[in-house]
Amino acid sequence: QQVDAGLMWFRRDLRLADHPALTAALAHGVTTPLFVLDPLFVKRSGAARLGFLYRNIRALDATMNRAIVVRHGDPLDIVPRFAKEVGADTVFVSEDFGPYGAKRDAEVEKRLAAQGVRLERVGSPYAVNPGVVRKNDGTPFAVFTPFSRGWIAKGWSAPLPAPSNMNLRGAPDVKCDGIPQEPECAATLPAGGEEAAWARWEHFAGDALSRYKEERNNPDRDGCSMLSPYLRFGVLHPRQLLAELRPDPNHDHYRSELGWREFYADVLHHQPRTTWENLQVKMNAMPVDTDARAKQRFAAWCAGKTGYPIVDAGMRQMLATGWMHNRVRMIVASFLVKDLHLPWQWGAKFFMQHLVDGDIASNNHGWQWTAGTGTDAAPYFRIFNPAMQAEKFDPNGTYVRTWLPELASVPDKFVHTPSESPAGVPNGYVAPIVDHGEERDEALRRYKSVTGK
Questions:
Q1: 308, 333, 399, 392: CA torsion to nearest 10
Q2: For residue 302, which of 151, 268, 315, 363 sits 20 to 30 Å off, Cα-Cα?
Q3: DSSP label of 376
Q4: pLDDT tens, 181-224?
Q5: How far is residue 291's CA from residue 285's CA, in Å, rounded to a whole number?
Q6: Partners of residue 404 on adjacent β-strands
Q7: CA–CA separation, 18 vs 423, rounded Å?
Q8: CB-hemisphere CA count at 13 Å for 151?
Q9: Cα dihedral value 107, 111, 114, 120, nearest 10
Q10: How many helices (H) and strands (E) does the chain have?
Q11: Residue 205 DSSP one-character state
Q12: Measuring CA to CA, which residue among 262, 207, 227 is closest to residue 15?
């Protein structure tokens, strides 16, 4: 008698708990777990993100009795061929709403159908699927606050438990290319796996969550959940975190931050061109610098050598850990776009190469927000003053000194503006590469040339 055989194709959902696609696959019959290492993803990812991915596949594999089959190559070829190899009649996936993922899945579905195999999309990386929350007239939201209201009103189901028993057929009986070794990486990465993700949640929920609204902007404190890398690879599902929250101003604020992630996925779903193009087309006329001097300034920004401590600390935090504090991401992005007049795409691409949590929707639309080219855009004339931002959110210089040891002996009064110190710029640090006041005026002049305002 024919036994129902399913294939669970893991992607951005490296967990057992609250995993609708895995639950459906196991209910269907004997299941082969598969992860396809797509060379395109490998090419586009920096060592930190790849290392964290491999770490989480390894952790998931350990919870699945080492049954995950890893194959290296183009999913368009591998998935249909593999389904035939293991005799699967259905391939289960969490739905991918990203431009690349959605296109890939449609093509895989076509190739599977040609050999009589179904692709079943069950669940997604979001509490509410992109495209579901809409205005009364059926059009998508372009502004976060009304989207957020609609998103909360829509609601989401309670998280599913992890499966208690799994009928798996995979490695070592099925040939496996193996999980690659973590690449050489300058960044110190978080621990992988569901247990590590929940330990981080408990640490955050036990203390900083109760002050989240007030302190989430302060990079000198351990005030963020730092769960974005785990959400990026689906080691946790946002629904699981939402289920932990109660009505309370701090919890509401954290819920709202999860909502931004869903909003940006929704925007990208409706307008895939906005991955690398301005959402606001009128901003295409904004003059940007791309000459040799611009490239030198960009190199200084990338290395954390701009002479603006809060900017440099953020860049060095990212290079050292694969993560950057959210408030600092905004300051660093504003500096690139409005003090250096460089295209936001340069910064977004550099972030995607170095961030462990690099998610194309959140990253690129966050950049567009700061650049004044996207949704809810901070009006272009809102230009962050790096020193004032630093004085407000890192008043004693604790954060900048953590990442810029060369400022260790600079007095608090000058830690954010060391070039103004009577002792001058300390040895090993750099003088500011631009004058913020002058560049602010230049940014406003360019903006006026586009809008006439």
A1: 80
A2: 268
A3: T
A4: 999 998 999 999 999 999 999 999 999 999 999 999 999 999 99
A5: 17
A6: none
A7: 57
A8: 28
A9: -70
A10: 19, 5
A11: H
A12: 227
Q: Is the peptide bond before 163 cis (omega within 30 degrees of 0)?
A: no
Distance CA 52, CA 234 (A): 12
* Secondary structure of residue 121 in the 3-state scheme: strand
Distance CA(321)–CA(167), nearest Å, equals 38
Residue 226 contacts residue 263 (beta carbons within 8 Å): no
Q: Which residue has the tokens 């090993």?
A: 428
The separation between the first and the last C-alpha atoms of the chain, rounded to the nearest angstrom, is 75
- Exposed / middle / buried, residue 443 (Cβ in 10 Å: 0-12, 13-18, 19+): buried
CB-based contacts of 370, cutoff 8 Å, min separation 6: 330, 333, 334, 337, 344, 378
| Separation of alpha carbons 156 and 126, rounded Å | 9
Per-residue pLDDT band at 61 (split at 50, 70, 90): very high
**Cα 192 versus chain centre, distance:** 16
Which residues sit opposite 69 in a β-bridge?
34
Identify the helix (H) or strand (E) that includes residue 214.
Answer: helix 212-215
The two three-digit tokens of residue 380, written as one number: 């272009």
What is the phi/psi pair of residue 119, to 5°? -105, 120
Let me know how long the chain is.
453
